[in-house]
Amino acid sequence: INQNREGFRSGFVALVGRPNVGKSTLLNKLVGQKVAIMSDKPQTTRHKIHSILTRNDAQIVFLDTPGIHKPRHKLGEHLVDVALGALKEVDVVLFLVEATSPPGAGDKYIAEQMKTIKTPIFLLINKIDLIKKEEVLERIVSYKDLLPFAEVVPVSALAGDNVERLIDTIVKYLPEGPQYYPTDMITDRPERFIMAEIIREKVLHLTSEEIPHSVAVVVEQVQERPNGVVAVNAVIYTERDSQKAILIGKGGNMLKEVGRRAREEIENLLGSKVFLELWVKVKKDWRNRINDLRNFGITE
Ligand code: GDP
Ligand code: K
Ligand code: MG
């Protein structure tokens, strides 16, 4: 790799948009495999993950940035800084909005934050599978004046509609450059991190409102046994005893279900049988303790 092939293009693309517009879903569709977890809860994505798409003529490195939104606590502030900082380093910004509604306060806030950014911004009208064909134009009109967009592309991240066209358009905006990553590499994050994220996704899916923001998952040990089974040990950290109780559930049922779903997916990821052991621990107020965040690997 890293050879300079004639005419080869490469570069970095950031995805932004208010929570739940489908950034992680699009990212997974773009690279053809699950690299970012998805849920209908805001702030599901906490980390800057590089995902990589390689074709014969180009390599695109995507950044799934944590959402830009008005911060409510230190973790929130950190996420906004990460997101805005990323936009200046990249070649293209994909600004995702939802086809199902006109611009809302969240979209306008993000557009305002991006006003001074010189990077070409694509407006992506996502979830077009949820509206009628003849409504698409009307939606484009309602969003297109938020910023001077370089391109406007209606897509369905879930169904994959127009995603190929989007990739072709992105490539046109990339400079000639080297292949940064090997052809078969789709993310720069270690497997351990992806495993922790898969577990966190299952927690988000199975629990109600009060749990998600207070959960961090750390994979403490990964060990391949002589029989080929991979033993994974992970801790789910919560802020309060009450949350710990919810996560464990009656007779341990919640934790068992989280474990069952996560194990299946980790088995797919690793391509081997997995023995997953989950623990729940209370660590009070971790969100406001930057040092703890470092230990959890949330800040760099
Ligand atoms: P993020 O917060 O922007 O990363 O959003 P996610 O990718 O986590 O998606 C939020 C929710 O919207 C999930 O339930 C997705 O399944 C759903 N979603 C994302 N893209 C589409 C789409 O194109 N069509 C439909 N119908 N749902 C979508
Ligand atoms: K989400
Ligand atoms: Mg996300």
UniProtKB/TrEMBL annotation:
KH type-2 domain mapped to chain residues: 207-284
Alphabetically ordered keywords of this record: Cell membrane, Cytoplasm, GTP-binding, Membrane, Nucleotide-binding, Ribosome biogenesis, RNA-binding, rRNA-binding
Stretches for region G1: 17-24
Region of interest (G4), residue spans: 126-129
Membrane topology of this protein: Peripheral membrane protein
Example GO molecular function: small ribosomal subunit rRNA binding
Keyword Chaperone: no
Annotated Era-type G domain residues: 9-176
Chain intervals for the UniProt region annotation (G3): 64-67
Main location: cytoplasm
Biological process, per Gene Ontology: ribosomal small subunit assembly
Region (G2) residue spans: 43-47
Gene Ontology CC: one annotated term: plasma membrane
Record: residues binding GTP: 17-24, 64-68, 126-129
Record family assignment: Belongs to the TRAFAC class TrmE-Era-EngA-EngB-Septin-like GTPase superfamily. Era GTPase family.
Role description: An essential GTPase that binds both GDP and GTP, with rapid nucleotide exchange. Plays a role in 16S rRNA processing and 30S ribosomal subunit biogenesis and possibly also in cell cycle regulation and energy metabolism.
Complexes and interactors: Monomer.
Protein name: GTPase Era
Taxonomy of the source species: Bacteria, Bacillati, Bacillota, Clostridia, Eubacteriales
Name of the gene: era
